[in-house]
Write a structure and sequence with these properties.
The protein has 340 residues and is α+β, with helices and mostly antiparallel strands. The chain has helices at 14-21, 31-51, 74-87, 153-156, 225-235, 253-263, 282-295, 326-336, and strands spanning 61-65, 71-73, 93-98, 105-106, 116-124, 135-143, 165-171, 175-180, 185-191, 196-201, 212-214, 246-247, 266-269, 299-301, 321-324. The protein has an 8-stranded mixed β-sheet with strand order 4-3-5-6-7-8-9-10, sandwiched between helices. β9 (185-191) and β10 form a beta hairpin. α2 runs antiparallel to α3 and α5 (225-235) packs across α8 (326-336). The longest helix has 21 residues, at 31-51. The chain is globular and about 60 Å long. It binds 2,6-di-O-phosphono-beta-D-fructofuranose. 2,6-di-O-phosphono-beta-D-fructofuranose (FDP) binds at residues 70, 124-128, 216, 251-253, 256, 279-280, 285. The site of 2,6-di-O-phosphono-beta-D-fructofuranose (FDP) has 14 residues, from α6.
């Protein structure tokens, strides 16, 4: 008798998936694929250092402050430089910008220039590195808008809805590469024994609701009253609407949003009396994560407006962020507008 073999999910490498993705774009030149390959290589090199971090005295801080005033960790620097070095010579990019650097990162003159712009946060959640807690890399890709010559700020400061790809790499109990080029959000887990990312989460869809909220509640007294009322509402007892919600906060944006994407709920970093625009950077964090979450069926807002519609004005600007299940984000907006 032939036994019933359970239907295995597709055995698909990230490389294959990227190539197949080109079929959605008959006009594709292969440059976007090249760029994504470069990022997956850089990710593996960073992961190698992250996993041996405690062994090789690479942990700890450098004496340098980054543009946002955080003390730069050595691993941040390693990730920052590794991504730049993996991406500067492929002919895919005309310019890069990193959360760790004040100015644009131009492509060296001896390498060919490409038509894409890459923005990245090399190691998000780096405050967690020393405690061995999940951290991640976030990336965002645009087409250049200036016709030729050296790329300018105009190429970089584009609205998030113009992204052509975005993704994040999670350095957790396993390493994941999650990306989107506008045709679904797909997650790959590294199989270290073969050194390949294998498709583990095909076409991720975020639940429309989810009884989990994620934010730094320690800032409660700095929030405006509407924000305080919103969180108070989530904490009230009401079986019919599934309240109180549970609070989950790693303090690594990538980890917190990854969980939100899979299980539903909301992640918030609101503005407050000390930081009116919150803490998170529009270009390196909010835009790419909003692109991912929207493409998975969720929503992302600064409390009033869709994040992806915001016109950026500076490379390192910050905005408040409310992101996750659509119904949860809409409820937050209603509270913030004083409608509830
Ligand atoms: P980090 O400073 O450790 O890099 O944007 C940076 C970030 O981490 C996010 O990843 C994280 O969610 C947030 O800051 C944590 O901020 P709080 O310490 O204010 O909660």
């Amino acid at each position: 008798m032939i036994s019933q073999v359970p239907k295995a999910s597709k055995l698909m490498t990230l490389e294959r998936h990227i190539i197949e993705g080109e079929r959605h774009h008959p006009e594709a030149t292969g440059k976007l694929s090249g760029l994504l390959h470069g990022l997956s290589l850089a990710a593996k090199l960073v992961w190698r250092e992250v996993t041996k971090a405690g062994l090789v005295n690479i942990l700890g801080t450098t004496d340098r402050m980054n543009i946002s005033g955080d003390v730069v960790k050595k691993l941040d620097e390693f990730a920052d430089q590794t991504i730049y070095r993996a991406m500067d010579h492929g002919g895919d990019l005309c310019v890069m910008a990193s959360e760790e650097n004040e100015d644009l990162l131009h492509i060296p003159a001896n390498y060919p220039q490409g038509k894409y712009v890459l923005l990245y946060d090399p190691l998000d959640g780096s405050g967690n590195i020393d405690a061995n807690i999940t951290i991640g890399t976030i990336f965002s890709v645009y087409q250049r808008v200036t016709p030729s010559g050296m790329a300018t700020l105009e190429d970089v400061l584009q609205e998030g809805y113009k992204q052509v790809a975005a993704g994040y790499i999670l350095f957790g109990s396993s390493m994941m590469f999650v990306y989107c080029t506008g045709h679904g959000v797909h997650g790959f887990t590294l199989d270290p024994s073969v050194g390949e990312f294998l498709l583990s989460h095909e076409d991720i869809r975020i639940p429309q609701r989810g009884p989990v909220y994620s934010l730094n509640q320690g800032n409660f007294n700095r929030w405006e009253p509407n924000m305080q009322r919103y969180i108070g509402h989530l904490q009230e007892e009401d079986a019919k609407t599934g309240r109180p919600y549970s609070l989950r906060y790693v303090g690594s944006m990538v980890a917190d949003i990854h969980r939100t994407l899979l299980y539903g709920g909301i992640y918030c970093y609101p503005g407050d009396a000390k930081n009116p625009s919150g803490k998170l950077r529009l270009m390196y964090e909010n835009n790419p994560m909003s692109y991912i979450v929207e493409n998975a069926g969720g929503a992302a807002s600064d409390g009033r407006r869709r994040i992806l519609d915001l016109k950026p004005t500076a490379l390192h600007e910050r905005t408040p962020l409310f992101i996750g299940s659509t119904e949860e984000v809409r409820m937050a907006e209603e509270f913030l507008a004083g409608k509830r």
